[in-house]
Write a structure and sequence with these properties.
This protein is an all-alpha fold. It is built from twelve helices and three strands. A three-stranded antiparallel beta sheet has the order 1-2-3, covered by helices on one side. β1 and β2 form a beta hairpin.
């Protein structure tokens, strides 16, 4: 008989998904599914019907968007079981997910603030992180996992590249042009081996990231009376480009996001388009 903490089917599913989703998403999915399996194993909803799953979801005092995310995670889990011949139907299909809209965080700073934060930063490693966010739109974990081989200085093109132990959020490599300022900084900062920041820290372990520079970042921006998260540097990158008239398609490619996502977040920042008058010039 299995112990309450042993869920062989879930373990098989996690092993199957390990190489197809990011480590963070895998961890979060595992946590949701283990909580569900523990509840079912303790007697809640052993019949496993749409109603019992609905009750389990409703029991969580969380936002509607989180309930929807839990339901989606369960649906993927059951769909996998169906493909493996472990079950016939998916009980999640009939549940009622509350209407929700994922909130958009719209915090970004001006180009003047960007220049101030970078120029006044005396910590070279933290300054590198600022350049990655503000000048290249890299995500937090992409900065942490950035390697010297990503930067092909003669070509002036950073290549965000997956590896065997790490994957990008969108499961794809991408190339981003290097700004003149970022290039000038890198020529002084150098290419650290094997990682561009905290090269002495290894991957793996129980922590979410190989290395976490959050506290250094937060203490510095707070000292400058600026209230942003590191992800806001990425939003600023996209916002400043949209405001300057850079193509939404280019911004989406550089961010590694879907064009539709970038349009929802940043298209309203695009400058006035003089072509609106073209139809009336004749």
């Amino acid at each position: 008989m299995n112990s309450p903490r042993s869920f062989p089917v879930l373990d098989q599913y996690i092993a199957f998904r390990k190489n197809s989703i990011s480590a963070n998403y895998l961890r979060d999915s595992h946590a949701v599914l283990r909580a569900y399996e523990r509840a079912r194993n303790s007697g809640f909803g052993q019949e496993e019907s749409t109603d019992t799953i609905q009750a389990w979801l409703n029991a969580h005092q969380v936002r509607p968007a989180t309930i929807a995310a839990y339901a989606f995670t369960l649906k993927q889990y059951f769909d996998w079981q169906i493909r493996r011949g472990m079950r016939v139907g998916n009980p999640v299909v009939g549940i009622c997910v509350p209407k929700h809209r994922k909130p958009f965080r719209k915090v970004f700073v001006s180009s003047g603030t960007v220049k101030m934060l970078i120029s006044e930063c005396q910590d070279p490693e933290l300054k590198y992180c600022f350049y990655c966010g503000f000048h290249a739109g890299l995500r937090f974990n992409e900065v942490v996992m950035s390697r010297p081989e990503w930067f092909s200085l003669p070509e002036v093109l950073p290549h965000v590249t997956r590896s065997e132990e790490w994957d990008t959020k969108d499961h794809d490599d991408r190339t981003i042009p290097l700004t003149d300022d970022f290039l000038a900084f890198l020529r002084v900062y150098g290419l650290k081996v094997p990682f561009m920041i905290a090269p002495h820290k290894r991957t793996g372990g129980r922590h979410r990231y190989r290395f976490d520079f959050s506290r250094r970042f937060e203490n510095y921006v707070r000292s400058k009376n600026v209230h942003i998260t590191f992800h806001d540097t990425r939003r600023t990158f996209a916002s400043l480009h949209a405001t300057a008239g850079t193509s939404i398609f280019k911004i989406a490619h550089w961010l590694g996001d879907d064009v539709q996502v970038v349009q929802r977040h940043y298209a309203h920042l695009a400058p006035a388009d003089p072509e609106i008058n073209r139809a009336f010039l004749a």
